[in-house]
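User: Some background: our group keeps a shared notebook of sequences we're curious about, and every so often someone picks one and asks for a predicted structure to add to the entry. Today it's my turn. The entry only has the sequence so far, pasted here. Could you supply the structure so I can complete it?
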Amino acid sequence: MEETRQNRLTGIVLMCLGVACLTVNDALAKALTATYSPVQILFLRNMIALPFAIVFAYRMGGAAALRSSRPLAHLARGVLWLGAAVLFFTSIMHLQLAEATALIFVAPLFITIMSAAFLAEHVGWRRWSAVIAGFIGVLIVIRPGGASFQAVSLLPVATAFVYALLMLSARWLDPRESVWTLLLYLTGAGALLAAFVVPFVWRDVQAEHIWLFVAISIVGTAGMTMMTQAFRFAPAALVAPLDYTALVWATAFGWLIWSEVPDTATFVGAAVIIASGVIVILREYASKD
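Assistant: Of course. Here's the predicted structure to add to the notebook entry:
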């Protein structure tokens, strides 16, 4: 019993730290987008992170973790991951970090819709109600037709859609492959794909920005690793909702760095989206028990 309690606590701590790291990643990306293209940021981030991903995979899974029986599936997932990242990084060039973060939280709702539409999974009325409420929350945040509406606000929603596709695409992979193999190939595919586009948007890296690129690679890799490990220590239904703590960090960083203060509508809409997402996650894992 004590070991179970300790594992749950470890999972919670890892998830919270991982979310914090990924929010730092987003804040660094927002700072870098003032000078560099999102594609260049992602290319350098992945190229710097790739050696670390190789070492992690080898240390945790041995030589077998460096091989995959379905490399094309990983490449396709790399396209989705790169697309989602470019959409999100483009959105935070123009939106407050907290606003973009709140809107991306609709990803679990898209996963529910796609699971019902394409995978014939049963979705009960509670989850459908949560999905509808979540998209009402999106409307509250972006306020279409209002004076403050920006078309760029749709980019985080598009990010969530592509991210949902990425999550579901895990079904294409060999279930015997470790999470370390998945992280390695996602990083490698991101670097490879970005390499085809980056020559067209390249800007010489300024000396004072080198540490930012190194930092974004470290915190991004650390965040993904800790969040992945969190699910190994604690039940998904316990740690998955902690992803929403990103809004706290995004609001804090936005205020401290860019003096961004989300308005009341953003907070209300975010609360509706988060509540809907939590219901969907809890119902999803309750149905698997």
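Suggested note for the entry: The chain has a mean pLDDT of 89. The two ends are 20 Å apart (CA to CA).
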